[in-house]
Write a structure and sequence with these properties.
Elements: H1 7-31, E1 44-50, E2 53-59, H2 63-69, E3 71-72, E4 89-90, H3 102-111, H4 119-150
Parallel strand pairs: 3-4
Antiparallel strand pairs: 1-2
Length: about 160
């Protein structure tokens, strides 16, 4: 997965992919108490290494973004929340799909869904520890590289 010399960083990225997903799950549980737990249980973190860069992607139920950022109905707009990841979306049709009962779907499509931000707080709760762990891992990777470099014989 990772190129030679970045093993400690790779381990940190793998670990924090799970920590970000857990933070999203915990944030959803706190924000939507009494819900089914489907959203909170859906988050999964994936660490990737592509084109020389590491990335973390967190996947979950699509409606988590709508819960976080809100959606304006086709009749009424909702106000954006500065703590949301994105500005509110906008319904273009009178009825939306999904598992909710028809009257609930019609009401949301008409009146919108107010934002209930939880994603940004979740990211903010993990990022300082992630940055610190990356810094430590970088030092270890550099130290490991330098140790290997000093073992090279020049004749």
């Amino acid at each position: 997965m990772a190129q030679e010399g970045l093993e400690y960083i790779k381990d940190v990225v793998l670990e924090y992919a799970d920590k970000y997903a857990k933070a999203f799950s915990d944030g959803a549980r706190r924000t939507f108490k009494g819900g089914t737990g489907r959203l909170a249980n859906s988050y999964r973190g994936v660490a990737k290494f592509q084109e020389g860069s590491f990335s973390i992607e967190v996947y979950g139920e699509d409606y988590g973004i709508y819960q976080d950022s809100g959606v304006s109905g086709y009749v009424h707009d909702v106000s954006p929340n500065p703590k949301s990841f994105y500005p509110p979306g906008k319904f273009k049709h009178r009825v939306i799909g999904g598992d909710l009962p028809f009257p609930v779907r019609l009401s949301i499509a008409t009146n919108g869904l107010k934002p209930k931000p939880f994603l940004q707080d979740s990211v903010d709760s993990v990022t300082p520890q992630f940055v610190s762990a990356l810094e430590e891992a970088g030092v270890k990777d550099i130290d490991s590289f330098m140790t290997q470099l000093t073992k090279i014989e020049v004749k």
